[in-house]
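This part of the workshop introduces the protein records we will be handling. A record pairs a protein's sequence with a compact description of its fold. Comparing a sequence with its tokens is the quickest way to learn the format. To make this concrete, we reproduce a full record directly below:
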Amino acid sequence: MTLPDPVIWAIPFFLVTLALEAWWLKRRRGRGPDPRDSATSITLGLGSLAAGALTAGLVFSLGAWLHQFRLVDIPLAWWSFALCFVADDFAYYLFHRSAHRVRWFWASHVVHHSSEAYNLSTALRQTWTGFVSLNFLFRLPLFVIGFPPELVFFCAGLNLVYQYWIHTEAIRRMPRWFEAVMNTPSHHRVHHAVNPRYLDRNYAGVFIIWDRLLGTFEPERDDDRPRYGIVKPLGSFNPLRAALHEWIGIAHDVLAAPGLAKWHYLWREPGWSHDGSRDTSETIRARWRAQEGRIEDDRVQAA
């Protein structure tokens, strides 16, 4: 049985909702999305589709090869779809968390975070180098468990399509029960923010419960409005620069680093440096917590 590619089928929906959101922004704020930023995101999205088409056969072949060593036989059925969808979303959470904690993975994923805007076109800003960064590794256990390769690919596509609608400021909050279980625009705005409070939080794809269970959840606060982008702004609308700038940065660091530090620039967290001269998300958050502590102490003393 051949399952369709949900991303391809969703393209008309993407186009219609991009236009609707642009109209909403124009009406609500007097201006629509920056056309340069949107053009960069759409170009990156088209490039990602092309890159995915070129490498999908290799990944599928690897999945099919691993599937012969499966632990159990799982048929295509409604219940196996539900199980696979949840398992795939947890695999996505693990990948996404690693993509912010390991520079080699981040070099590919940073593309998605490089926009300083936050709208539906941002969802289309996808990597061209996912295969190089080995982001498919996190889904390989699903084939060994016994989920059919076509089902895994179908669930992965649905996961990506779901995440499209959460890239917007047009929706403030969903009902409380929905916010408790599912990833929403509010939760994902936190994830795209560079505010110290929000750095490296809310990795969920579909179910926010993974973040709640594993200690990476942070709610959006009205008194700390998200500021979007990356800690060191890209400063360019050039799609090629957006796609490759972190890989170039890695190459420069590896070539200049002494000894074994070269390897650390591949596998340590983004921002790590052998001489401690750069900021990581931990050092940024530590300074923020210290500052918050001093502010709170001043408030107590003033009272």
Summary: The chain has one domain: 1-303. DSSP finds 13 helices and no strands in the chain. The chain has a mean pLDDT of 94.
